[in-house]
Amino acid sequence: MKSCRFAALLCLAVTLGCSISLFAEVTLPAVISNNMVLQQKATPALWGTATAGKTVTVQTSWDKRTYQAKADQNGNWKVHVKTAAYGGPYTITITEDHTITLENVLIGDVWLCSGQSNMEMPLAGWGKILNYEQEIAHANHPDIRLLQAIHVTANQPITNLKIRNSGWDVCSPETVAEFSSVAYFFARELYEKTKIPIGLIHSSWGGTIAEAWTSYETLQQLPDFAAAAQKIKATPNVDQKAFEQMFAEWNQQRLAADKGMVNGKAVRAAAELNTADWKTMPVPGLVEENGLPGFDGVIWFKRSLSIPENWPAEDLTLNLGPIDDDDITWFNGEQIGATNGWNKERIYTIPARLIKKGTNHLTVRVTDNSNAGGIYGTPAQLFIRNGAGQRIELPGNWLYKVPYALKDLPPAPQNPNNPNRPTVLYNAMIHPIINYTIKGAIWYQGESNAGRAYQYRQLFPAMIKDWRSKFPSGNFPFYFVQLANFMKRADQPGPSAWAELREAQLMTTQLSNTGMATIIDIGDAKDIHPKNKQEVGRRLALIALNRDYKKNIEYSGPRYKTQKITGDRIVLTFDHAAGMKAGEGKLSGFAIAGADRKFYWAEATINGSTITVKAPEVKQPVAVRYAWADNPDANLVNAAGLPASPFRTDQWDGITKGVK
Description:
This protein is α+β, with helices and mostly antiparallel strands.
């Protein structure tokens, strides 16, 4: 009897299994959902999977039309619907054996937004842009829709985008807070000026390189990247467990190199530690700018402080701002917090039981894994606060000691999910949306390629052409942000990798249907993520409003056109030159050189659409450079208040030429 019942159950299970495979339900990719925006005046695709051989019926409410497609042997189907001018909301019904109804659909313009951290930077969260609380509170824009991609890599192209909230969001204070601030302000400006619904597909990842966003096919045409892309393509399986084991072993070596940690105990966090051999460094700040150029590794920071005796005996709040990359923090020798991630603000509780009368000791162990590092926020972000809001300010000279630099250790094992590998972000975060019809794209990236700026001259245009070859929109508008001013200001003219990257971006504007927003005037010397994202989004929108929405507005600052050498001076001509002037004070940012290629700061005089440049040290000039530095003191603008792009009139080899 038991055996008969088991056989019956087994037969039922097999039957059910067959029915599941034979009668699969219609499914849609993540980019097709409620609240989405379809591109106006186009034939955008709708697609998904269904039972092989079954007919899928699609009905659109804006024109009462019906479309049909038969699922192929793999269950894939696709239809192209026709959209008129912008409007909505509408519904779309998709039917096979059951019906899916997509609601609150708008027809408008869809923009893809991508790049690295300055595109990813949210209004709130780690971003905290200018006036972020007010901006979020007023972000009720039901005709702006948001699709947020989640970070993921893939060695080969995948078909479905990983997203938050299972689909498109309506723009509101709740949905915009953790969305790209540049993308939001771009869309807000477009909508306010046109009233056309805007859909934003945001797919970016902080700290990433442009080749990661480029397809295998295109990288095969670029010798610097072909071999690496081939290797990735040939590696289908990600052995994460093997990596984790190798990394654990390497991490043990790293911990052993830090004499501040003994058997898991932080001996350098001890309150009574002898710090006679420690040095001092201003905090906040980047360690690379404060005595440790090119440093990656571990740094211990320490400072003493006194808690006012009239403060009540209660827990206190410690705010350290953001730290690049990871930290462990102690108060009077006891750990009170630890955070991994360069883009997270550190807010820790100091228990009342740890607080002493008189001197107290704060210790922070910072791990800088790559690029710039340190306790890098603003002075206003460093403080201790009591319940009544009284504060102890923490900026100033802190003690520090370096136990090791990463260059002193064996190389770290390569993470198979590392986003900074050719093709892996294109595969996972662009390829899944190439069937979706878009109006255009905006892009903010380049910091991670600045050390290879000459290479970027080829890579960046190739990536733009690559995307255009994949999307049905073809030669769509592609607008990007030129790198902002950043790092310490130089006293004298000299070479700059960031200037060379800006030049590569400027050169890319020669590609058809591209545009560049210059923001050399709104960066931050101490913050690679400047807070004024409102103006960045607005300047990108100015390009689109002029080019795509036919608004008669200026969208670019002065652009260098020609030079003419006249005796001991050089006369420069410009486009977008109406009302050229110095933004504030005397015109600055120009340098001039003779045949010896030695540049001197120059006097520059505006005369209509020309500028005359000269310097007493250079009697026979041959070249001029403007804003040619990481963080230039440069103030040329036009009547619209838009800054001139950095440029040079020479073609002498730069410091990144040949760097791969």
